[in-house]
Structure prediction request, 603 residues.
Amino acid sequence: MRTPLAAASAAVIATLLLAASGPAGAPPAVPPKDERLAWWRDARFGMFIHFGLYSTPAGTWDGKPVGGVGEWLLQNARIDPIAYEKTLLPQFNPVKFDAREWARIAKDAGMGYVVITTKHHDGFALWDSAASDYDVMATPFRRDIMRELADAVRAEGLRMCWYHSIMDWHHPDYQPRREWDARPVDPQSFPRYVDFMFAQLKELLTKYGDIGILWFDGEWEGTWNHDWGKKTDDFVRSLQPRIIVNNRVDSGRAGMEGFSADEHARGDYGTPEQTIPPNGMPGKDWETCMTMNDTWGYKASDSNWKSARTMIRMLCDIASKGGNFLLNVGPKGDGTIPAESVERLRRMGEWMRVNGEAIRGTTASPFPKQFPWGRVTMRSLNGQWQDVTRLYLHVFDWPADGTLRLDGIANEAFAPKVLGADDRTPSVARDGDSLVVTGLGAAPVDPDCTVVSLGVHGTPRVQAFMVRPAADGTVACMAADAIVTGSIQYEDRFANLGWWRDMASEARWPVRLAGPGTFDATIDYAASAECGGTAEWMVRSGGKAVASGTAELPGRTGWGDFATVSLGRVDLPAGDCEFVVKARRKNGDSFVNLRSVRMAPVK
Ligand code: H79
Prediction:
């Protein structure tokens, strides 16, 4: 609800604030990033909540279904912002809203923080805003939802965090306007909009206690730029020096992958949306935000729910890559979280109660590659009295023989455990450069993911990735594991090596065998009709070729038309070697798309 004070401009507010902050006039210093982000890196798992005027129509307008995500209703149905306000304000009455229930659901799921839409793109404020009449006090509900939630979230020991949209489809001074918005435009209005946004941010950052994160969004329209980003970032931090600010405060986020290309861009962390970076982002902080179905704001027609198993494994995957998981719920117009979401979070919480130590306070896997059976996280316990690391093996595909191999680690290991099964007594032993954990039991404790933990002395000392024989002796050289030179690039589309245009290019795989072996080698490749050619392979050991051969790879019907062709017999030496593939001749511009080379042992 608007009050006269709201007229003060952001500049005035900032000046008042600086004056209030100390004799020197300097704002309180912002603590170092490691200190500010410690709680967030530790939590690893948070709840995103999208709640607003759009939650009531739930993906419909004028009784008709509207395509796209629920919270984009105004844009997707091209609704006049004033008609949207007039229609939805009187309908917003979430009588079953229970802040303590929401907070309990997040807590029981094992989450450490809650990020809620204080204002989404539609501009509606879910708190009692002095700067605007387009807020929750203008609805029949007339309760400050942000205040109730902040109190409840903190009572559960979680951090309250604010999502805030820079883009505002409703405010008369925001630009660019929606094309169908007929209100007159003042070309000079944008700075006034920023004043308004600062006034609202000031309320959110001075009247609701300590806020964990300010999670900006809607920064991609041309009016927002690096200068606005800097001003906003400084303003937020002047009000709450310890706060974490996501990278959407600034412009320059590169697509849904969520990272800023410019190292000078403001913001503490990257924000991949609906995607998990395939190899993490070493050295960077990031948080994948994701929906449980296909919408952020509630949409009654969306029943495309991810399973609890999928989301548990995503949490493990994200933690193993050093990121956070911000998982969304979209409460209904009546204020309740959909039962489908509650049920899935309950299952995730059940898993977290047994396995939370493998997520919370852990860091990324030390290994250069993911293991085929699952994921790895670790916790360093190096301190004054001990120098050990606990490794957590998140097993998705339980080994029928109860044995797991960790290849390429030099540390000695101790005290293996199966989390949630104190009665199991596994053991760990060394086999060459591998650790082998045996006696894990024939069945997983939890089929969604069972965690095996292992102590190792010191910091993990792991080796570069080597291809090793599988249990049946097959040596599988996959495109994703190749070391490539020249023009070759890995392509996600068919999990292949492509762009093989430069004849000097080669793909090679380091291979480690316990003893020598003879194999029948095959190559899995595709090519357009005019491409293909002659492949040349060799085995290099100690810097020189110890075996070689050639194979014809004729053109096929296209770059996705894969076939398996024999490369012939291959002798591999004991110990380390490299398997190398080159093009001896190419029929067209490009050689082939190579998916894998497989070597089956000759009995
Ligand atoms: O609040 C939820 C969505 O409503 C909001 N963000 C999540 C957390 C969202 N808004 N837009 N989108 C999601 C998708 C928008 C993508 C695009 Fe773009 C905007 C495509 C082009 C402009 C992002 C920014 C990708 C490139 C620039």
Observations:
- The chain is about 20% helix and 30% strand.
- The chain has three domains: 33-61+69-358, 374-457, 475-601.
- Residues 16-20 have pLDDT under 50 and may be disordered.
